[in-house]
Amino acid sequence: METLDITQPDDWHLHVRDGDFLKTVVPHTAEQFARAVIMPNLKVPLTHTQDALAYKERILKSVPKHLSFEPLMTLYLTDHLKPSEIRLAKEQGIVALKLYPAGATTNSDLGVTDIKHIYPVLEAMQRHGLLLLVHGEVTDPSIDVFDREAVFIDRQLEPLRRDFPGLKIVFEHITTEQACEYVKSVDTGLGATLTAHHLLLNRNAIFKGGLRPHYYCLPVLKRETHRVALLNAATSGDARFFLGTDSAPHLATLKEHASACAGCYTASIAMSLYASAFEAAGRLSQLERFASLNGPAFYGLKKNTQRLRLKKTPFEVQAEYPYAQGALKPLFAGEMLEWSAQLVT
Ligand code: DOR
Ligand code: ZN
Predict the structure, then answer these.
(1) For position 345, what pLDDT does the model report?
(2) Atom of ligand 1 nearest to the CA of 135
(3) What percent of the chain is modeled with pLDDT above 90?
(4) Where are the domains of the chain?
(5) Which residues' Cβ are closer than 6 Å to ligand 1?
(6) How far is the CA of 106 from the centre of ligand 1 (A)?
(7) Long-range contacts: 326-330, Cβ < 8 Å, 24+?
(8) 154-191 pLDDT tens trace
(9) Could you say which ligand is closest to the alpha carbon of residue 100?
(10) What is the pLDDT of residues 142-157, one digit of tens each?
(11) Predicted TM-score of the model (pTM)
(12) What fold characterizes domain 11-304?
């Protein structure tokens, strides 16, 4: 297949940061995606509806004039968020709240220290129909970093689902076979996003020819058997699995550092990467479901009307992008990719 036209996709998990950084990354996403769920883990986390709405306006200012793009806003759960915020959030169009276990990842220090602390808020979310997005890793330092997602399922996610059967939950950026199997075992109310890099790479990528910080993200890449399970889930057509890039830009100086920040920047090449993964699995025919149909169905939103064209036109990934006063290096910088993506006008 040389050309594939699909309903314009959405990115159900995206980091765009703030300030001048927006000018680099927002256009990359808006060139491919109609909507994106914007993660709230800014340096000062977005814990209030008014802050999220002001942030949305700043994002919209960075959308190129010829494109239309809708940021779907989320709030950051802390131990102290009040249940009264939930009704306001719903009224103002916030789509979800993000649960970061405290200390699990970038800017998660103010995250939740014990899920029991947020039970009144979760109850309000269940009542008002706001989704819960979870970074599904335990933070217990005695648990091996490669096992933290699987342990999270047993220790946190299963009890949470039992206590809030009516709460819609997205298990974000899943990276293990255990997570795939768990999501498949639940009939309603649980979905999962999958990144392009976890579909294409296993943990060997982090160590190939030296330590490669641009391949470091959280949850960290896993062994090959997990990558294969993720690719099978994504390409199966199962409505519970949908696209979320987890594109997470950091200044190159902070990635190429003694304690490199976690996050892979993939927004600029996202649909090209997903197309390569689906092609390798022999399942390009399922890309539209995963990228454009399953997500809106899970969130209860309409699918997009515009179309995106993927063409077998190889191109070289740019080495870096200007990023405020520094540089931003995408994953696969300088390498060739097979598929180009363009909106059908
Ligand atoms: O690799 C990651 N980067 N994982 C996360 O959960 C957060 C993200 C970021 O914000 O940089
Ligand atoms: Zn993320």
Answers:
(1) 87
(2) 6
(3) 97
(4) 11-304
(5) 15, 41, 105-106, 135, 217-218, 248, 262-263
(6) 5
(7) 326/251, 326/252, 326/253, 327/251, 327/252, 327/253, 328/24, 328/25, 328/249, 328/250, 328/251, 328/252, 328/265, 329/214, 329/252, 329/255, 329/265, 330/265, 330/266, 330/268, 330/269
(8) 999 999 999 999 999 999 999 999 999 999 999 999 99
(9) 1
(10) 999 999 999 999 999 9
(11) 0.98
(12) TIM Barrel (3.20.20)
